Amino acid sequence: MRSxxxxxAVAAILLAGAAGVGSGIGSQATxxxxxQGKVKNVIYLLxxxxxxxxxxxxxxxxxxxxxxxxMEKMPAVGQVGTYALEKNSGQPxxxxxxxxxxxxxxxxxxxxxxxxxxxxxxLGVDAKGxxxxxxxxxxxxxxxxxxxxxxxEITDATPAGQMSHALARGCQGPxxxxxxxxDLAITGSxxxxxxxxxxxxxxxxxxxxxxxVILGGGLSRFDAADETAxxxxxxxxxxxxxxxxxxxxxxxxxxxxxxxxALFNKGNLTIEKFKHDNxxxxxxxxxxxxxxxxxxxxxxxxxxxxxxxxxxxxVEGALIDKRSHANDAAQTLDEVKAFDDAVKVALxxxxxxxxxLVIVTADHECAGFNIxxxxxxxxxxxxVPPVNKDSGNAANNSTPLRTANQAKDPSRTAFAPAxxxxxxxxxxxxxxxxxxxxxxxxxxxxxxxxxxxxFAYGPGSSALEGEIQNTDLFGIVRHALSLDVSGTPAKVxxxxxxxxxxxxxxGQKAKIVVTVTPAAATGSVKILDKGKVVRTVNxxxxxxxxxxxxxxxxxxxxxxxxGSTSYNASASGSLSVRVR
Amino acid sequence: MKNAIAVxxxxxxxxxxxxxxxxxxxxxxxxxxxxxxxxxxxxPDLPTPTGDPELPGIATSAPAAGAVGHIPGxxxxxxxxxxxxxxxxxxxxxxxxxxxxxxxxELQVLAGFYDAKxxxxxxxxxxxxxxxxxxxxxxxxxxxxxxxxAVPAGLRGKAVSAxxxxxxLVNE
Lengths: 580, 172
Prior knowledge:
The structure holds 2 protein chains of 2 kinds.
Chain A: E1 4-5, E2 10-14, E3 41-47, H1 52-63, E4 76-81, E5 84-85, E6 99-100, H2 105-114, H3 135-141, E7 145-153, H4 157-163, H5 178-181, H6 184-187, H7 201-208, E8 213-217, H8 224-232, E9 236-238, H9 249-254, E10 260-263, H10 272-277, H11 289-307, E11 311-317, H12 319-325, H13 329-353, E12 356-362, E13 365-366, E14 370-372, E15 418-420, E16 438-441, E17 447-448, E18 452-457, E19 466-469, H14 472-480, E20 495-500, E21 503-504, E22 509-517, E23 524-529, E24 532-538, E25 543-549, E26 553-561, E27 570-571, E28 575-579
Parallel strand pairs in A: 3-11, 3-12, 4-19, 7-8, 7-11, 8-10, 9-10, 21-28
Antiparallel strand pairs in A: 4-18, 5-6, 12-18, 13-17, 14-16, 15-16, 20-22, 22-25, 23-24, 23-26, 26-27, 26-28
Helix pairs in contact in A: 1-13, 2-4, 2-14, 7-8, 11-13, 12-13
Chain B: E1 7-9, E2 37-40, E3 48-49, E4 68-70, E5 79-86, E6 90-97, E7 104-114, E8 120-129, E9 144-150, E10 161-171
Parallel strand pairs in B: 4-10
Antiparallel strand pairs in B: 5-6, 6-9, 7-8, 7-10
């Protein structure tokens, strides 16, 4: 299936963990009893697409209006800003800062994993395409045990944000394709296919050893070569990528070892509602997210006991988002409940352990989920939205005035709320009936820009209180795991120089030599003509040689080194080239 | 196992990493006294792709003349093909995602074209790439994608059948 050439050199960039951006630590002045003590482990649970209303609606449905989900019982509560960036934007505060107010899961995952804002679809790279290390990579490098659990394909954005670096989240594998992996808006021209940023995410995960325990879906993304690579790296592989045999919860229960790789579905895991309704179906053999969390904690605890160091585990309840995209409230609420059951597993461990920080949050809100008054209806997709012109009192008017159907899909004219019984409703009240007390609507089928809730328990949890940005989560986790107090080196300055042809005959190519020092610098260099990118090339031994065919006239060539996890970016002076 | 491959390590190391002992025998796994890599930027056992992906069954998927066959691929349990037509100059059809209701991020449909003896004589592709700048489906998340794949120039009149398969498929 793949067409590849052997012979890629390994370039392993060492910890330059001071990604430095967005790593602020909030005040820890509020000292609840659970907030005291030293953190040894961090369990980070992420409900994909889980906004505040998702939490409230699930609470009301399963525990009643006066009840609480497990995550709501955690003592520290805050909210998280989630905005992303446009492509090629600078970071907040930079002159070229261009925010995008609604994030996707990839940009959000990069924010908390690497401490930088980036563009939607980017994983482990900033908005200009520079590779940034993740906190899970840093934890692994520091000797902590690491785990990554998801109910999505393990190559999907949230888990991949900790274990890969890709220009485009669609570059998942099993195969490279130009359309899904390259992004010319970032790089100007196609990157060599050996570049990590266009290497399929499955190939990266199978080879970079970032997570010791990998549990989730997405077996179709992996192939026989990946299975070989995993086993060569010491993983116990449950099921088989080679034969496309999925692992089962029975396999998982029996698993042991310091490194375990198990995927339970070829795609995303199956929604809980289907498994409940179809207990004899093969999909019912998939573990729940709580099952996976429990096993991951057991495996990581056993490994960390052997090293004397702690562990870092990320858990994603992915299907909250996917079912919200579908505006399926019944399945969405079941997935929130399943995710909250995993939160309980983590909390029970943390309470017994005493040295574990548990963080529960979301990457973004999905679909404008809302609880509306009994008997009312939704506006956004209605055929005729309520007018915002008040003929009786002009003070009530808004601008601009709505004069027509503004639904994105004009055909969507009969959008009714979903109704659900809650724990407080009398017996006999059924889901879908007008008598059910929980009336739910959606604003859209896509993400929204609302802040998301964050809950925390354990030592250091007060850092999560108040209003934070998703990039702050990177610094909070790094601090909790003491990854920022070990003399983490700053990046080294680089210098970029240009040499080459200054006079060229028309029709001939101009040879341009780019030299970046120190020579150990890796990454890419953009070649620009009068400020416009004309070529992007990778460095080899600190050098890159390009031959440019230029039009007649004068050209002002410059080079810009993008930097790397170890070296700062730098730019050359200009080289004048005249083509006669 | 991969000793023949040069290992290029940048010079920065975290002192706290020096005792990290890898369990696996991967090529980039350092010994106990060497610093651990943080970001691995390439992999010695991974062949470098030279182009868009192939499907192994393309050479043996020729249907009867005038028909459109199916080339097996890794995502066949995630979609249904419909309205497949081949008119000698192009193959058309539609693909409905059956696994998820969410935006279709990436799709590539590979078409093989065959002569009267069932021999593969050419191929072409349809690519869907969802990008905020270049292509964004408005309205509800998309589950349906139509495709048209032309017979390569020079093969028209020679190709009598086609087959299609999906090597790339990513939903959000």
